[in-house]
Amino acid sequence: MHHYVTPANVEQRVLRRLGKRHAIGRFDASRTALVIIDMQNYYVAEGFPSGSAQARGIVPNINRMSSAIRAAGAKVIWVLTGSSKAMEFWPNHHIHNLSPENAARRIASLAEGGEGHRIYPELEVHPTDILTSKVMYSAMLPGPSSNLLDTLAEHGIDTLLIAGTKTNVCCESTARDAYMLDFRVAMLSDCTATSSDEEHAATLNTFQLFFGDVMNFDDVAARLEPPARPT
């Protein structure tokens, strides 16, 4: 797991811009979702070409965070990359940005229903959780890539907590697009992972300087507000 601490110069710049450390003071559980990106065997499990020890390292933290989110009454949403529409909706990526061998392997390994597509088995998925899919890096692109935007609208969600892998690819793409669509967004430093500490830190530094918040489990737990009970 990456051990991220916000650098002092980044914190000072956030304070100058915002006047406080975090933009999000409280999380209204009825309008908040934990969005967990790509925690599938293909990206996490040993024996898969893109399996990652760093991603395996955040599994306990994601389980802990998702449990706290459910207990507060907020939504947990799992976003899974699938390849069945990859050549229909994202051909340039597979033809021009990957070798033929890597493109074929990716499409085969992420086929819906296959072992690579499944959520890593040590992650705790509950019956109340929502599962959705995406084709491209960002889960927030409207149209063929994903129906996450429609799912969030259906449940009245305006605040997102981003977890999963990779920090600087699908997690960052989703988080930035969500922010540009006027969602309140926090990337979770202890529930995201990528290939190196340097890439992880660079993404989180940039995100809190220009986009949304960066928080850890304790930051979120201190701000979670369960839905008000009817009187």
Automatic annotation (TrEMBL):
Residues annotated as domain Isochorismatase-like: 32-216
InterPro entries to which the protein is assigned, alphabetical: Isochorismatase-like_dom, Isochorismatase-like_hydrls, Isochorismatase-like_sf
MF terms in GO: hydrolase activity
Keywords for the protein's UniProt record, in alphabetical order: Hydrolase
Pfam families recorded: Isochorismatase
Designated name of the protein: Cysteine hydrolase
Organism this protein belongs to: Ramlibacter henchirensis
Organism lineage: Bacteria, Pseudomonadati, Pseudomonadota, Betaproteobacteria, Burkholderiales
